[in-house]
Design goal:
alpha+beta
Length: 506
C-alpha cells in the first residue's frame, strides 16, 4: 500500500492546505485496514473422527500362522511409518521394476500431473491479476475535423491528426477480500489435484501388485489343474483297458471321462484369466498388450510382510489422499462462499494514466503536451436481488462438500475395517487350507507306500494324487489372498512420506 501512496499521493492539489491531504491519508489508511480483512469465515479443518479403532471388537495383534510358504505370522504395528514404496516389502525384484517403470510411463499419472500443473498455473495467473497493479502501454492515432461553428465560434473548420502515448495503471484494492478468497479457492483446488495425483500413484501401485499376485495364483492353479487332468486321463486309460479285459463296465469309463473333460474345460478359462492379467499389467505399465516385456509372476516370487502398519483413525484422515482431496474441496467451497459474501460489500478500484499528446509523431515524445489522469471508483451494490441468492447457493455448496467429506471419511474407515478383518480371517483360512493340503499329502504318501507293496492299486494312487492337487488349488488361492490383503492394508493406510516433496500452495 505504501507504493500506492507514493504513486498517487503527489497528484494531490498542492494549492490546498495540509488538512485535505491528512483526510486523504486517513482514508487510505482506512482502506488498508479494510483490505486486511476477508469476507466470510476462515476455513477450519474438520475435526478428526472421535473413534479409537476401526472395528466393534478388537482386532488380533497378530495373525495365525501356517507351515507353508506365505503362511508366516503377521503383526499389526501401531504407529509404524508407511513407506512410500511399500511394495518393496513384498521382496519381488520383478514387481519393483514393473511398478517403477509404470510410475514413469503411466498415462494416467501423466494426466494427473498435467491437471496439477494447470491448477498451479491458474493460481499464478489469478495471483498476478489481483495481487499486483496492472500496467498497460497505449499508443493511439486519430484523424479529427473540428468545426468552431458547432460551439458558436467564428472560423473555418480544421482537420488535424492527434497522437497519444500513455502508460496506465489499474489496481483493485480488494476491500472485502473477495480476491484473496478467490486465490484461496484456487489454491485449495490445486491441493485437490495434488492429492488426486497421490491417490493415482497409490492406486496404480496397488493395482499392479494385486494383478501380479492374481497372475501368480492363476499360474499355480493352472499347474495344479493340469496335474489333476493328467491323473484323470490316466484313470480313463486304465478304465478302458479294464473294459477291454472284461473287468469293468463301460459306465465306469463314461463317468471318468466326464470328470476328466470337466477338468479339461477349466484350463482354457484359467488361461484366459491369466492372459487378461498380463494384458492388464501391460496397460497399467503404460505399454500396449502386444509389446510383451511383462514378467511372469509366481507365488515363489513374493514374500509375506511379517509387520503391517496400523495408524489410528485420527491420523488416517490426515494421510489418506482421498480424504485430503475431499478436505481440499471443502476448503474451496468455504472460500467460494467468502467470494459470494464479498460481492455484497464495497469495491474500490484505482486507476491512473500518464502520457503525452501531440499533433505529430515527432513531437509526441518531445514537445508534446503531458496528460495525466487519476480515478478512484467506489461501488456498493444497493439493489441486486441475485447477490443474496448467490450467497445462499454458495452456502449450500459448502454444506454439500461437508456432507461429501463425511461420507469419504466413513468409507475410508469401512475400508480399513474390512481389510483388518480380512487379514485376520484369511490367515485362518490359509491355516485350514494348509492343514487340508498336508493331510492330502500324507494320504498320498501312504497310498504310494501301499502301491509299492502291492496293497493298493494304481487307480487308488491316481485318485490320491488328484485329491492332493485339488487341495493345492485352494492352498494357492489362500496364499495369494494373504498377499493381496497385505497390499490392500498398505493402500488403506494411505500414501507414504516420500511424496511430501509436493508442496501445498496454501
Amino acid at each position: 500500500m505504501a507504493s500506492l501512496e507514493m504513486k498517487y499521493g503527489p497528484h494531490a492539489d498542492h494549492r490546498k492546505t495540509g488538512r485535505p491531504r491528512l483526510r486523504l491519508y486517513a482514508l487510505l489508511a482506512l482502506a488498508v485496514a479494510l483490505a486486511g480483512c476477508a469476507a466470510g469465515p476462515d476455513f477450519q479443518r474438520p475435526a478428526a473422527p472421535d473413534v479409537a479403532g476401526y472395528t466393534a471388537t478388537p482386532v488380533a495383534a497378530q495373525t495365525e500362522s501356517a507351515p507353508v510358504k506365505l503362511g508366516e505370522t503377521q503383526r499389526l504395528v501401531s504407529g509404524m511409518a508407511v513407506d512410500a514404496r511399500w511394495w518393496r516389502h513384498l521382496k519381488s525384484p520383478k514387481l519393483d521394476a514393473l511398478i517403477d517403470a509404470a510410475l514413469a510411463a503411466s498415462p494416467t499419472l501423466a494426466s494427473a500431473e498435467a491437471a496439477l500443473r494447470q491448477s498451479r498455473e491458474l493460481y499464478a495467473a489469478q495471483a498476478g491479476a489481483t495481487l499486483y497493479p496492472q500496467v498497460d502501454a497505449a499508443l493511439t492515432a486519430q484523424r479529427q475535423r473540428l468545426s468552431p461553428s458547432a460551439q458558436g465560434l467564428p472560423g473555418e473548420s480544421r482537420t488535424f491528426s492527434l497522437y497519444n502515448a500513455s502508460v496506465g495503471v489499474r489496481y483493485n484494492l480488494d476491500l472485502s477480500g473477495g480476491n484473496r478468497r478467490a486465490l484461496e479457492a484456487l489454491a485449495a483446488r490445486a491441493d485437490f489435484r495434488r492429492y488426486e495425483l497421490e491417490a493415482a500413484r497409490l492406486t496404480l501401485a496397488g493395482n499392479i501388485a494385486t494383478t501380479a499376485i492374481t497372475r501368480a495364483r492363476l499360474a499355480a492353479q493352472i499347474e495344479a489343474t493340469a496335474a489333476i487332468l493328467k491323473a484323470q486321463e490316466e484313470q480313463v486309460r486304465i478304465a478302458r483297458e479294464r473294459v477291454r479285459l472284461g473287468q469293468a463296465a463301460p459306465d465306469e469309463v463314461l463317468a471318468l471321462t466326464t470328470q476328466a473333460e470337466q477338468t479339461r474345460a477349466e484350463l482354457p478359462t484359467l488361461r484366459s484369466q491369466m492372459q487378461q492379467t498380463e494384458h492388464r499389467l501391460a496397460v497399467l505399465a503404460g505399454r500396449a498388450p502386444g509389446t510383451g516385456g511383462i514378467p511372469e509372476f509366481t507365488l515363489e516370487d513374493f514374500t509375506l510382510p511379517t509387520e503391517l502398519p496400523l495408524i489410528v483413525p485420527s491420523e488416517l484422515v490426515r494421510r489418506r489422499p482421498d480424504i485430503q482431496a475431499s478436505e481440499s474441496l471443502l476448503h474451496a467451497a468455504n472460500a467460494e462462499y467468502g467470494i459470494a459474501v464479498a460481492k455484497l460489500y464495497p469495491q474500490l478500484n484505482l486507476s491512473a494514466s500518464l502520457g503525452s499528446q501531440a499533433l505529430t509523431t515527432g513531437a509526441l515524445f518531445g514537445s508534446g503536451s503531458a496528460v495525466w489522469g487519476l480515478v478512484g471508483q467506489l461501488t456498493q451494490p444497493l439493489v441486486n436481488v441475485g447477490l443474496p441468492a448467490e450467497k445462499r447457493a454458495a452456502l449450500a455448496a459448502f454444506d454439500a462438500a461437508a456432507a461429501n467429506y463425511q461420507a469419504v471419511v466413513l468409507e475410508a474407515l469401512r475400508n480399513v475395517a474390512d481389510v483388518l478383518r480380512a487379514v485376520e480371517n484369511d490367515a485362518q483360512t490359509l491355516a485350514a487350507r494348509a492343514a487340508a493340503h498336508e493331510a492330502a499329502q500324507a494320504s498320498l504318501r501312504s497310498v504310494e507306500r501301499q502301491y509299492q507293496l502291492g496293497a493298493a492299486s494304481y487307480v487308488q494312487l491316481l485318485i490320491a494324487q488328484s485329491q492332493a492337487q485339488q487341495t493345492r488349488l485352494g492352498l494357492a488361492a489362500a496364499q495369494a489372498q494373504r498377499l493381496a490383503d497385505s497390499v490392500a492394508l498398505y493402500q488403506a493406510m494411505g500414501e507414504g512420506t516420500e511424496d511430501a516433496r509436493l508442496i501445498s500452495l496454501r
